[in-house]
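Dear support,

I submitted the protein below through the web form. The confirmation email said the job was done, but the results page showed an empty box. After a refresh the structure appeared. I'm attaching both so you can tell me whether what I see now is the final result or a partial one.
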Amino acid sequence: MPDFFLRSAETKEFEEIRSCKIKGQISYLDKTRGLWIEIDPSLIGQKYGLGDKDISDLILFPKFKNTGLFPISEWPFHVLVYRALDNDVYAKKKIENDQEIEMIVWASIFKNKESAENYQLVSSAADKGIRKWSKKMNKIFLTLVIIGSIGGVLISRVLQTVNVTSPQTVTLVLRASQPVAKGQAVLRLMPDIDKGEDSEEGETVGSNPKVDVKCGNKELYQIKLTEQHSETVCGIQVRLLKAYKDDDVPVADVEVTW
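What the results page shows now:
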């Protein structure tokens, strides 16, 4: 018998309703408690570089401050969904650093399957309409290119809006990985580890946020963001434009130069 159901309109993968069984609690840096769940159906592991090994265990954290999973304070309950990058996390029931987990989606959990179905029908209607319109416009654009109906100047202008150029401005969400510089590097906004979930501000990134920078399979680097350009790491430089909260979730606007 499932304890609750998980669903999200953020990605097509999570539009499918998944039943969830609680397996326990997992502490994060001894300050925050996450809810360890087993989902059915599992996530296809190939998308996450796991080959034929699917993902059935996930970790949930509250999306908003002043809400809690122990017990669940309201329905539907909005969560940040993580996967463990190391199975030792489940064995020791403890996350000791941010390199052990990866956020994969924002989602909601529901008390019963009917609630999940009804909620999603409303919340995803606009998204589905946008996706349908976008696919139609892409087909029209490709057709025009093929038959040569668009002049060279117009094509150039369109491509300039599509291609990423330096400097690039990105909005980083706490603990979420964001590819930048045409995939040259991946940035991940990190929390202020001196403050936990029980602080008055809730989880924060502080006045000078830190980001993890990774390029390919090379080691991770951590940079403190300021209004000045950082040292060059992975062939890029970063600087802070603004740090703030969006719906109580810490985010930062960052300029990337390469």
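Response: this is the final, complete result; the empty box was a page-load delay. DSSP finds four helices and 14 strands in the chain.
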